Each structure stands twice: as C-alpha cells, then as structure tokens.
Amino acid sequence: MSQRFRAIQRIVGIIIVLSSLTKLPPALLALAWGEQGTPSVFFGSFLVSFLIGVALWVPVRAVNYEMRLRDGFLIVTMTWVFASLVSALPFVHGPPHLSYPDAIFEATSGLTTTGATVIDGLDELPRSVLFYRQLLQFLGGMGIVILAVAILPMLKIGGTQLFRAESTGPTKDTKLTPRIAETAKALWGVYFGLTLLCAVSYWMAGMDLFDAVCHALSTVSTAGFSTHDAAFDYWSSPILEWIAILFMTLGGINFGLHFVAWRRASMAVYGTDSELRSYLRIIAVAAVLVTLVLWLTGTYAGGGEAFRIATFQVVSNITTTGFAVTGFNEWPGPAPLLLVVLAFIGGCSGSTVGGLKVARVVMVVRQGYREIKQLVHPKAQFLVKMGGRRVSESVVLSVSGFIAIWFICFVFLMVGMNFAGLDLESSFGAAVSTLTNLGPGLGEVATTWGTVSDTAVWLGTLGMILGRLEVFSLLVLLTPAFWRE
Question: 0.85 exceeded by the pTM?
Fold first, then answer.
C-alpha cells in the first residue's frame, strides 16, 4: 500500500474513533434515567466502533505523508461515509431495531442534517435514543459549516469565499493552515452559543427541558428531527413556532457573519452582505405569497394564523430544516410547489443549510439576465456583479457548471427512485428530500421512509451524502485520473 493510502487509513481510523464517542453521552443519560437495555447497546456500540478505529490507526500511526489537495476530496467523503456507518450501530442493536439499510439511512440523515426518517412512533422510543438522534444532527451541523469555510472553498466550485465582502472574516480566503483551527474554534463557539440560547428560549416558552434541548440541537443545525411524531404540532404553541422561525433563520445565515457580528459587538455587518439581503427578501416574498394562498382559500380562518404558519413552513423549507406543519403537502394551489422550490434555493453559503445556496442562485439569475441584454445589444459589455463587485468569468462558469451537474444528479436520482418502485410524485419528493437535505418529501415519503424499498433507502442515503458534499466532492472520486499516483 502506498504512503498516500496508508496516511488516509490513519485519518479514517481517527474519524471512526472520534465517531465512537457520540455513543457515550446517550449511554450515560440512559444509565442516569434508569432505562433497561439501552445503556449496554450504546456502550457496546462505542466499544466496537472504538476498537475498529484503533485497529485501523495503530499499524499506520507513524506514517508521515503530506496530503495534497485532491486527497481532501477522498478524506471528506470517507468522513461522512464511515461516520454514518459507525453511527448506525445503536439503531440496529437497540430500539427501534432497524434493518442495516434503514439504520444507515437514519444515521446519515442525522449527520447530514437532512431530517428524513424511517421511524414511525417516536413518542414510544427511549429518551436516550431520541437524544442520540438529535446529537447526530448537532454534530453534523457544525461539521458542515467547518467543511464550508475550510475545505469547500478549495474545490473551486463557486462556494463560500466567492461572494464574501471584506467584513465577513473567517470565510474569506480561508486555507488549510493552522488558522483553520482558530476559525473552527470560533465557529463552534458561535454555533454552541446560538444552540444554548435556542434551548433556553424553548424551555422558557413551555417545552420541558429535555424537549427544549433536543429541539435546539436540531433547530440551529437546520436539521429537523423531533422527539415527537407530531413535531411542533405536539405543542400547538404560536410562541414556540416563532422561536423556531427565528433560530432556523439564524441557522441559515453564514456563520462567518455571526462570528464577526459577535466579535465586533455590532449588527452592522449583517447589512453589508448582499447574499443575506437576498435570502431575507426571498423569505419575505414567499411568506406573503403562501399566506395569501392559505388565507384566500380559507385553509386558515385568520390572517394572523395563516401568516404565522406560512412563515414557519417557508423558513423551514428554505433553510432545509424540514420541520413540517401537518398536511402542508396537501395545501391548495401552488403553495406546496413553491415550498419545494425554496428547498432547491437553500440558505446562505457557510451556513448549516443544504440546497444550491442563495449566492449561486442569484448569480446564475444575473448571468441569465446578462445574456438576454447581450442579445439585445450584441456589441455592449455587461458585467455580473455580486455585492457591488464584478464576478470573474471563471467564477460564473464554475457556478453554472456546478448547478448543471447538480440538476443532472437530481434527475438521475429521481429516475432511480422511480425504478425502485416509487410513483412519480414520490420519486420527485424523495429526490428533493435527500439531495437538498430537506427531510420531508412528497407522496409516499412526505412523513416517513419506512414504507419504501431497500433500494430506495440506499438511493436516499447516497442522495443525502451527495447533497451534503455539494456533488463535486463525491463525483471527482469516480474519475480515473483521481486514482493515478
């Protein structure tokens, strides 16, 4: 085995050892709560995954190899794959005793902050299992932010660093240097602080402490798992829904902006970011449109109630959190389709959100408008600008290429779902659910994936990882050139 692959094996071993540690908090909580059976499941899963990681690491622990840029693609992909495989163990050997495909789907959904689930009957599960699901989403959410600000900018696909003003701090021109550790530490601090604030808000607004902590873990991470099958409908509390709206919106904003705002003790930095302004405008327009549909069709009696519920679902979808109002997929008129389109757009770059990201969508729309003007005035020169600055042609092309490849993957995933036995609506909903990391789909996968075939479940797992890694990171591994020394 070459030094390169021995070095990668060393990193994979470390990843598995670190992933094994996620079983300890729920194991200790299960002991404290006096649960029967679950402590041994979590401790056993920890021991197995820890030993596997150590067995991979020990033979190559002394390898000294300087990683190249392309090695980052493989390492990032393997991080998500192996973390998901190891994290699935408690779902197989303890409640809810899932099959391996379903358990891997559930763990992947947690770590990628998708929020799709194969479980029906959350209210009957032990609290330690419910906490474990939420913990996976919390850890996955910050993993995504670190990925976005530290690694994805190097992949040259028009990501985070391309649309940042000078005031956005750690997301600008970030490289894989010791500075990344400082950036990661700062972002973790902001992320943890927002989650803590969210938990306290939920608790003060009426949730018990356990539900408040669990829902905070999945709100700021824009993930969407709940401890109840009815999710927020379990409480029917307007104030809890408004708290969720606020923290989902914050989770969809570039965490670099949050960090700079905190460091400077000033809100002014938010006003300088063009992507954030576009993000908030989209939310406002969509919320008004959905409100009008719900109010004029009599779905909800009062305008205030229609506005609150519409805003909740709009924010949940554009941030790909996936908290859902019961029966939203059966709302009248264009409302469900508009909500699905919002998931395609997603939130801001450098956030915990899935989807294409607002910056890319806005830039491609402006590029399209430029092409129209070019047809009218063939000899004129028009520029694509973001935040008042000219965007280079290479960036325009890379973003256009990314979106084209993303939609090709979407079509293939939808067709694959159809071949796996889902009807057309469910296939479309399943592809949206997984590739955008939204969670709730349409048709058969609107609430749970528990009734679909194993083939569809495996495709869903692939779709979640593909969407979370922004497609190129995974697709580059399929090229022969990547594997040549």
Answer: yes
